[in-house]
Amino acid sequence: MPIEVCPKVFCKNKAVYGAFDPPAWDLSKVKYPRVAFFTGAQDWLATSGDIARLRAELPAGTIVSEKHVQYNHLDFTWAYNGPERIYNDMIAQIKEFQGKGY
Structure pTM? Predict the structure, then answer.
């Protein structure tokens, strides 16, 4: 598809990256040394393959916590039991590392 007729959102990708899809992030360049994974067993947007790729490509020792719940992608925002399933743990981890440097 010529850039002159492509949908606007894809035109910028084509102009910037030379392709309609942007390149994959180089996860080995992640600078923050602490990452917590909160993953959903029923997530159709962030698949187990996506999570495996992320886990494999992050620098060694980066992942400090993993919690896997029976959620889909939207449940992380809308689930009635979000506080007890993930938010309380997430906030505790933020507090634990607050003010700590790299």
Answer: 0.67
